Amino acid sequence: MARKAAIIGGGVIGGGWAARFLLNGWDVAVFDPDPEAERKIGEVLANARAALPALSDVPMPPEGRLTFAGSITEAVEGAEYIQESVSERLDLKHRILAQIQQSSHGVPIGSSTSGFKPSELQEGAADPSVIFVAHPFNPVYLLPLAEVVPSVKSDAKLIENAKEILRQIGMFPLHVRKEIDAHIADRFLEAVWREALWLVKDGVATTEEIDEAIRMGFGLRWGQMGLFETYRIAGGEAGMKHFLAQFGPCLTWPWTKLMDVPEYNDELVDLIAGQSDAQSGKYTIRELERIRDGNLIGFMRVLKDRDWGAGKVLKEHDKRLAALLPEPPKAEVLELAQMQVLPGWIDYNGHMTESRYLFAGTMVCDNLLRLIGADMDYVAGGHSYFTAENHVIHLDEAKLGDHLTGTVQVLSYDEKRLHAFIRILKGETVIATVEQMLLHVDMKAGKACPAAPEVLARLKPIAEAHAALPRPESAGRHVGQRKG
Ligand SMILES: NC(=O)C1=CN([C@@H]2O[C@H](COP(=O)(O)OP(=O)(O)OC[C@H]3O[C@@H](n4cnc5c(N)ncnc54)[C@H](O)[C@@H]3O)[C@@H](O)[C@H]2O)C=CC1
Ligand SMILES: C[N+](C)(C)CC(=O)CC(=O)[O-]
């Protein structure tokens, strides 16, 4: 039976939490009195379904069941984890936490609060030890960070359990050791936000110019190395000490207005909102969300290939998901990859470009290799499979956003060779096949050699079962040869 999470407050953030739990196989009950909540969560979920699987290289678990509860009591019944995501008002959060605790006993209650300290949330609670901050980042279904902030009253074991649950849904719980208003990340965001408001108010820059200053420069750096590693490099060969020597004095120069905030009034709101409308009003919010998600997926996939930063978290989550996969039914072709056609995959003909078919095929093949134990640890040990020959047959088109699956049928194998037939499907339609011949290689010696016995032992039952399947008509076909 699927595990259950309760989401109390189903707005921007609650919707994102619901999507992340659901797509990782948990059942989710949402409570939100807003009559529009169901529609809004449906739209967030549609975007999440199109986005999150594109980050995974192993099949994700079957989606959990989403229900909308009529009361908090109903939502939290049987829940193993509760996430409070109501509006940022302390009195409201207190009321909601008290209602949750009337029906939940000993269950972790994370709060999405952007700024309240856990000790503030715990004030007057029946059981303060289970309430903590689990502060996520929008879009919650894609970004891994959740700042986990306990207080001195928190139950340390429960916090560790909650962090493990967050890992199980692909998140990166960052344990904030000392509670502080706005935690770690929002202190930076607020500092940058205040400076940006000043720059617009003082007529120095428009909202668009500020966004360009971020996304054309330091924003790109931050996403992969953060602040300190970036500045260490900026110090040149002498590193951080030189950086501090050069830029330390500017702390006292008028580079910053951080201690001061512009007056929040209608004039400021109209100025910022007006410029923002001029900048991006041509898109709906949902369109902007999809653009953002596509960009994040592309960026995070690069980090994943490089096993770095947020990409490392994705790789670890793949390993976790792979360990949960049931034994594949060996008498059938193996479905080993789910993909989504991303903007960078589209060519000037407006459809998926040819090199991406091979890319999709190799993703399926890499997953087969992982399945038989020829994984990255095996490669690190000096052995791997190299592709000796590929034959791609294009049968149909794929368009931006299409969901593709990849299957593999092992046609034959011996100690040194592996002959695989891959199908790329859109729904039920095979849009391409990729036939591959792989050679097992001793990378140090630079020549083919027999695969390790444990790899062959895993490959054998799959190949034997696949030998009973009909041989694909186009297997062995050469370019231009007619069928039949
Ligand atoms: N929007 C953002 O960028 C981020 C927000 N957060 C935090 O997440 C929390 C929620 O913020 P958003 O989702 O942005 O706000 P939102 O306004 O989109 O959603 C809040 C939801 O709470 C619901 N709500 C109000 N009273 C309720 C009640 N009595 N019972 C159940 N639901 C109730 C509202 O109907 C609404 O759907 C806040 O604590 C916020 O600080 C955290 C990270 C990022
Ligand atoms: C603006 N904000 C304080 C609500 C931002 C956050 O809390 C995190 C985010 O997703 O930017």
Task: Provide an overview of this structure.
This protein has 484 residues and is an alpha/beta fold. It folds into 3 domains: 4-175, Rossmann fold, CATH 3.40.50; 185-282, N-(1-d-carboxylethyl)-l-norvaline Dehydrogenase, domain 2 (Orthogonal Bundle), CATH 1.10.1040.10; 328-467, Thiol Ester Dehydrase, Chain A (Roll). It is 42% helix and 19% strand. The protein has helices at 12-23, 37-51, 72-76, 90-103, 118-122, 156-168, 185-201, 207-225, 228-234, 239-247, 266-280, 285-305, 310-324, 354-371, 376-380, 453-467; strands spanning 4-8, 27-31, 66-68, 81-84, 109-111, 131-136, 145-149, 172-175, 334-340, 383-394, 403-413, 417-426, 429-442, 447-448. The strands form 2 sheets. Strands 3-2-1-4-5-6-7-8 form an 8-stranded mixed beta sheet, with helices on both faces. Strands 9, 10, 11, 12, 13 and 14 form a 6-stranded antiparallel beta sheet that branches. Strand 1 (4-8), helix 1 and strand 2 form a beta-alpha-beta unit. Helix 1 packs across helix 2 (37-51) and helix 9 (228-234) packs across helix 10. Bound molecules: 1,4-dihydronicotinamide adenine dinucleotide and the ligand C[N+](C)(C)CC(=O)CC(=O)[O-]. The ligand C[N+](C)(C)CC(=O)CC(=O)[O-] binds at residues 114, 137-138, 186, 189. 1,4-dihydronicotinamide adenine dinucleotide (NAI) binds at residues 8-14, 31-34, 37, 85-88, 92, 96, 112-114, 135-136, 138. Its EC number is 1.1.1.108. It catalyses: carnitine + NAD(+) = 3-dehydrocarnitine + NADH + H(+). This is L-carnitine dehydrogenase. It is found in: Cytoplasm.
